[in-house]
Amino acid sequence: MSSQAMIEVVGLGKSFATPGGTIDVLHGVDLKIAAGERVAVIGTSGAGKTTLMHILGGLDRPTTGDVKFEGKSLFSLRGAELDAFRNQTIGFVFQFHQLLQEFSALENVAMPLMIGGMKKNDATDKAAVILEEVGLGHRLSHKPGALSGGEQQRVAVARALVRGPQILLADEPTGNLDSVTSAEIVALLNQMHQTRGLTMIIVTHNNELAGSLDRVLRIDDGRLVGDNLN
Question: Are the beta carbons of 111 and 100 closer than 8 angstroms?
């Protein structure tokens, strides 16, 4: 693990205005994550884990503080520049796979490449390679409705990684799966880390998944209250 921080979180705070007043979700979070680290984020529901992930991924902006990527402020980027950084550098996996139901597994994985300007034939060729890598080379033409929950999550992992990101952010990637399928997805994520050198940050309630990673962060009431190496 490198001593150089790939991601640095400085004094991060996030508040939301509601009709009943301001809700503070994150409070002064400071954090450094090295390139290639595998980090679990745990805590009770509503503790601020998903909000932290959205800010780390550039999907939301903090109220206070900053996130730096290799020393550069993520939020100094604006509009298309931030979109390009996010699309090229970060892959996202969610609890609910958010696959497009009318498209095949191959088309779902090729979509980010085509949106990025790649020709369809090239995009589908590249998508087929990564679907084979995640164990779905025999299911390319199947639509999500014809796939099991675990297979759908494998498609989601392939889609997240098809553009070759440096960072994988996953929010409860095993939250909708049974114990056997969860173990398979845990093994797949760790395999992808090993073969691709990913930096992985994973929100989870799955103790097996958290225990398989390098480090566990605990968020409680919007504050970082635990930071332990496994």
Answer: yes
- Helix axis angle, 105-115 to 120-133, nearest 10°: 130
DSSP letters spanning 57-98: TTSS--SEEEEEETTEEGGG--HHHHHHHHHHHEEEEESS--
The secondary structure element, H or E, covering residue 29 is: strand 21-34
144 DSSP 8-state letter: G
- Which of 156, 151, 207, 138 lies closest to 184, judged by CA? 151
Supply 96's token pair.
């609910």
If we measure between CA atoms, which residue out of 205, 175, 215, 169 comes closest to residue 189? 169
Q: Determine the 3-state secondary structure of 141 from DSSP.
A: coil
Q: What are the structure tokens assigned to 95, written together?
A: 């609890």
Report DSSP state, residue 140: T
Q: Which two tokens stand for residue 46?
A: 């509503």
Taking the C-alpha atoms of residue 137 and residue 114, their distance in angstroms, rounded to an integer, is 20
pTM of the model: 0.90
pLDDT (tens digit per residue) in 131-169: 999 999 999 999 999 999 889 999 999 999 999 999 999
- Give the Å distances, CA to CA, from 178 to 183, 184, 187, 190: 9, 10, 14, 18
Domains of the chain, each with CATH number or no CATH: 5-229 (3.40.50.300)
* Average pLDDT of the residues in 48-57: 92
Mean pLDDT of 170-181: 86
